[in-house]
Amino acid sequence: MRLRTAVNLADVRELARRRLPRPVFDMVDGGADDELTLARNEAAFRGLLLSPRPFEDVTRVDPSVRLFGRRLSLPVLLAPTGGGRIAHRRAELAVAAAARGQDTVYVQSTVTGYPLEEVARAGGGGLWYQLYLPASRDETRAMVARVAAAGYRALVLTVDTPVFGGRERDRRNGFSLPLRPSPRMLLHGASRPAWAVEFLRGNLPTRRDGRLSAWATQRQILASPRPVTWDDLAFVRDLWDGPLVIKGVLRAQECRRILDCGADGLIVSNHGGRQLDGVPATVEALPAVVEAVGGRVPVLLDGGVRRGTDVLKAVALGATAVLVGRPYLYGLAAGGQAGVERVLELLGAEFTRAMALTGCRTVADIDAGLLLPPR
Ligand SMILES: Cc1cc2nc3c(=O)[nH]c(=O)nc-3n(C[C@H](O)[C@H](O)[C@H](O)COP(=O)(O)O)c2cc1C
To answer: What is the pLDDT of residue 205?
Structure first.
């Protein structure tokens, strides 16, 4: 099987599994503790039943959506993921270029292998930026100014990472970032020579192009995740003029206060099951958040989206759009920019088909009436 012949996202995951050394694949694929939430994210989508609407003329289907004034080809964005450079040499640059080519948004993570300005250029000005708070207010001010100057359209503040979740696969594999050439890692690398050659070509430290400094920043951020307080939220809101989106909301209680602080959007997310294990699947948490927000701002969702029908189910429950994380990292590992594009093409084709099969001409036609039991 190759990228071209991969028929769904599970196939692309399998390609990534064959390409990457086990500890690297596990770092991307794994979740926290017993991985209950990781599994539940996907299982909850599978548990939702669809109730198609017949007698609709669906010869033409338009899967595009508008978000913060921009038209996206699909209600599917690329979630922020750190450390892509272990999956592919061009990492964030390849993902940004793919998002640009497919008319969607890539949310660039603070944890990055390339300077944020370079990624912004690769994305053609359409990207969003995900912020992990730097250690001090001065650094935060400087960072947000840098993000604005680079042309990022929206700022995403992740609030579910006061400390890192317990990633047991990584501990078992002796894996940590930045990757160090331990004897064990060299052995794993030798079992995947194509990956190893690429990795070495792309990651030998050099001061010329800023790679070393980007890597150093990553180390610093990885070493010190920070809680985000209400004060921090207000502080960041003051610094940033564009849309501000809060990522990592799982319950209704705080929604009103988040909106009162001036947030322009929410992402229902459990970090792909990588933080607190034992929280609900995001599609289970979505309805309460949608109700609490009451249409004031867009609500997005990520976690476990692997099929076009998953996208449709999330939209039916009130999400404006979804984001995917691991699926495009599998694509990136399997084939760089072309792999990310393939993932978006597959999801786009599945989503468009699901719209036609449920009788929806536009994304606005997707509603809770398409789910069983009726809501
Ligand atoms: C390898 C990896 C790295 C991630 N890094 C970040 C990050 O730096 N910042 C962040 O807000 N979320 C991060 N996430 C979480 C994703 O943004 C997203 O919430 C999650 O991947 C969605 O679930 P899915 O992988 O099932 O699509 C990461 C996820 C993965 C798999």
So the answer is: 61
